[in-house]
Write a structure and sequence with these properties.
GO terms for molecular function: ATP binding; galactokinase activity; magnesium ion binding; mevalonate kinase activity. It contains nine helices and twelve strands. It has two domains: 183 residues, Ribosomal Protein S5, domain 2 (2-Layer Sandwich), CATH 3.30.230.10; 136 residues, GHMP kinase, C-terminal domain (Alpha-Beta Plaits, 2-Layer Sandwich). The chain is α+β, with helices and mostly antiparallel strands. Helix 3 packs antiparallel against helix 4. It is globular, with a radius of gyration of 19 Å. The structure holds adenosine-5'-triphosphate, (R)-mevalonate (MEV) and magnesium ion. The site of (R)-mevalonate has 13 residues, from helix 4 and helix 5.
C-alpha cells in the first residue's frame, strides 16, 4: 500500500489568463489530498472517494476508457466525478508501461471540491505519485508534474494550464508561463481564505472566458492586462527578502494588485455574488487586498492580512461558510507510506 499527499493552492494572481500563455503565480497551501494506491491481481480499478458530492460511494471498473463503472448512478455523473482519478490511473499505467495494472484507490482530502483551491490537481498529483510508486516506477518531480498536467488537460477538454499541477507537485510559490514552470523565492505571505460552501466547474468557466476572449478585443485586452499586472507583482516579489517577514509596503502593493486582478476577473465574468461579498468584507476589515482564487463561479477568495481582522469579518459575512488562515505549504507532494 502506497500513500502520497499533495497540497492545494491559492493564486496570488494570474488564473484564467495563464491558460492563454500569460504568467501566473500560485502558492501551495497546507490543505492536502491523500491518495492510497494498492496494486490488484486483476486489471480492475476500485475507487473509494468519500468526499465526492455523490455522497460517498465506491466504484469498481475494469481498465481502459469506455468501461461503465459498476455503480448505480447515471453515467455522466460518475464520469464527471471520476474523471480526474481515472486520468491519474491512466497516466500511471502509461508511465510504468503497465497498461493492465489494477488498483484499489482511496482518496481523502481536506481541500473543498471545485472551490478554487486546486483539489483536482492535488488528487491527480498524489494519485499519479502513489500509483507509479506502487508499481515500483517512481517519477521525478518534473515528470510527475507534466503527467499531472496531461491528466488535467484531458479531463478539462484541452483547457488547462500547468499552474495548479506544477504548484501542487513542487510546493511553495511558483511561476508558470506556458510550458515554462519554475519555483520562486517568495516571502511567507499572510493568506486568509473565505469559502462560500459552493463550487464552480473549472472546465465550463475556462470555456466561458475563452468564448469572451474570441468574441471581443477588449476581453482579449483584459486577459493581457492580467499578464501585465502579474509581471508587476513578480518584480515586487523578486525584490523582497524571502527569509524575512514581508514588509508592510510589499503587502500593500501586492494587495493593490490582487484587488485589480479581482476586478479584471469580474469583468471576464468568473466572479459571483458571494465571492464579491467576501472580497468586500475582507477589504472592509482592512485586508491589504482580496480576490477570488482559481476558476471562480463559487468557492474561495484569498486575502492578505497578517492580523485576525479579515478572518473574523469573513466568519460573520453572510454567504461565507468557512474562513481560515492558509499556511504556505513549502513542501509539495510527499510520500506518507512508501
Ligand atoms: N477528494 C476528492 N475525491 C475524488 N475526486 C476529487 C476530490 N477532490 C476533487 N476531486 C475531483 O476534482 C473535481 C473538482 O475539480 P475542479 O478543477 O473543478 O475544482 P478545483 O480543482 O477544486 O478548483 P480550481 O481548479 O478552480 O482550483 C471534482 O469534481 C472531482 O472530480
Ligand atoms: C482557471 C485556471 O487558470 C485555474 C484553476 O485553478 C485554469 C487552469 O489554469 O488550468
Ligand atoms: Mg482544478
Amino acid at each position: 500500500m502506497t500513500v502520497c499527499e499533495a497540497p492545494g493552492k491559492v493564486y496570488l494572481f494570474g488564473e484564467h489568463a495563464v491558460v492563454y500563455g500569460e504568467p501566473a503565480v500560485p502558492a501551495a497551501i497546507e490543505r492536502r489530498a491523500t491518495v492510497t494506491a494498492e496494486p490488484r491481481e486483476d486489471d480492475h480499478v476500485r475507487v473509494e472517494a468519500e468526499d465526492l458530492s455523490l455522497d460517498g460511494f465506491t466504484v469498481e471498473y475494469a481498465g481502459g476508457t469506455g468501461d461503465r463503472p459498476d455503480v448505480d448512478v447515471p453515467t455522466p455523473l460518475v464520469e464527471a466525478a471520476m474523471g480526474y482519478v481515472d486520468a491519474a490511473v491512466e497516466q500511471a499505467r502509461d508511465a510504468a508501461d503497465a497498461p493492465d495494472a489494477g488498483f484499489d484507490i482511496t482518496v481523502e482530502s481536506d481541500i473543498p471540491l471545485g472551490a478554487g483551491l486546486g483539489s483536482s490537481a492535488a488528487v491527480v498529483v498524489a494519485g499519479i505519485d502513489a500509483a507509479t510508486r506502487a508499481l515500483g516506477e517512481p517519477l521525478d518531480r518534473r515528470e510527475l508534474a507534466d503527467r499531472a498536467y496531461q491528466a488535467e488537460y484531458e479531463v478539462q477538454d484541452g483547457q488547462a494550464s500547468r499552474a495548479d499541477t506544477f504548484c501542487s507537485t513542487m510546493g511553495g510559490a511558483v511561476r508558470v508561463e506556458g510550458d515554462d514552470c519554475e519555483p520562486i523565492d517568495a516571502p511567507n505571505l499572510p493568506f486568509v481564505v473565505g469559502f462560500d460552501g459552493g463550487a464552480g466547474d473549472t472546465g465550463e468557466l475556462v470555456a466561458g472566458v475563452r468564448a469572451l476572449r474570441e468574441e471581443h478585443g477588449f476581453a482579449a485586452d483584459t486577459v493581457e492586462s492580467i499578464g501585465d499586472l502579474v509581471r508587476t507583482g513578480e518584480d515586487l516579489l523578486a525584490d523582497a527578502d524571502p527569509a524575512e517577514p514581508p514588509e508592510p509596503e510589499l503587502l500593500a502593493e501586492l494587495g493593490e494588485l490582487m484587488d485589480f486582478n479581482h476586478g479584471l476577473l469580474t469583468a471576464l465574468g468568473v466572479s459571483g455574488r458571494s465571492l464579491d461579498a467576501m472580497v468586500w468584507a475582507a477589504r472592509d476589515a482592512g485586508a491589504h487586498g482580496a480576490k477570488l482564487t482559481g476558476a471562480g463561479g463559487g468557492g474561495c477568495i484569498v486575502a492578505l492580512d497578517e492580523s485576525d481582522a479579515t478572518e473574523t469579518a469573513l466568519s460573520f459575512t453572510q454567504g461565507c461558510e468557512e474562513a481560515f488562515r492558509a499556511e504556505l505549504a513549502t513542501e509539495g507532494v510527499r510520500v506518507v507510506e512508501p
